[in-house]
Amino acid sequence: MVVIVGAGIAGVSAAQALRENGFKGQIILLSRENRMPYDRPPLSKDALHTSTPPTTFLLRDEAFYKTNQIDLRLGAEATAIDAAAHFVTLSDGTELPYSTLLLTTGSRPRTLPLFPYGAPFIHYLRTSSDAQRLRQDMQSLPKGASMVIVGAGIIGLEVAASATTQGFHVTIIEAGERPLGRSGSPLLANFLAAEHTKHGVDIRCKTHIIDVEKSESGYSLTLSDKSTLPADLIVVGIGVCPEHELGSLAGIEAAAGGISVDAQGKTSIKDIYAAGEVAFHHNVHYGTQRRDETWQHAASHGEHVAKAILGVPDDYSSPGSYWTDQYTFNIQVVGNPLGTSEVVRGNPSDGVFVIFHLIGSVICGITAVNATRELRKLRRLVRNSSAVPPHILEDTTIDPTHY
Question: What span, in angstroms and rounded, lies between the C-alpha atoms of 86 and 190?
Fold first, then answer.
């Protein structure tokens, strides 16, 4: 029996991979939420619009779990692991035995003491309930109401794009020097900042909030530059923390905030594995241990660890990728977008271009803006760590994959 704790994309992908690779035993998939497992990327985009039904966000329909004989248990939170006796204790006191345990517990939002989770008109965005509550508050406010977003990462920028199109006056407060400090290149950050500015978003970098006062109509924020800022609605998006506590309580080794696993997802305790965002894992492409926080990693690593559980391991060598949709722009990033230099292919003013990210002469990552078809062809350059001269990369008449 395989018990999977966590029904996000890593857990669902692992369950599917177990069946597709011939596992005939019982699979139990535990979800602490009472909703069918759903996709998280839409929560900061489509889920904030009333026209999109929540059923479109499901990872799989009910028939998938029945057809594959996956015992999906909703509202079942694991609270303890007895590794010696091989069972998991659930919040209702049930002791669930396992032969193999897979932890795909994911992450939770980082919080700020100034902005308590659940306070009126203060929001963090991680679950479907979070998105529903934010959408309800957005609908309750008049057009032209003020929204302050703390953090200019992907979540913050996506929420800003959605809110602006719904008539909010949006200000983003970012402590770093620029937007997308951890997840995007300087050129992409500048491009998106300019687009947000065109849509009326006020992005204030190298700034933080030092005090918050509640008023009858909303909040008054005091900033590090001593200025004040009114806010009818506040959204905090400053990153996530891995949900490793369940494993740590059982004595499983952790590092860099995540559960330490080997190249096949094994933890320090026999018959217990971890996959997805919670796992501090080995990636052959980068030749190092790392923790990734993207949808694609969670899906790929869940499948990878499922195969390892069945004794058919492969090398996990994904360079990583993510995407974001903001206004009319679809942005896809493959590999490491924080190289030592950048080469642009195409014209950013046209809204269709590619950025090659280099470390020395080696292509470590690619960002494609409204250029999905070209990225399909170019992504092999990242996987192969190719070295192509900059003048070839920027010349749209030359195919750099044939260089």
Answer: 52
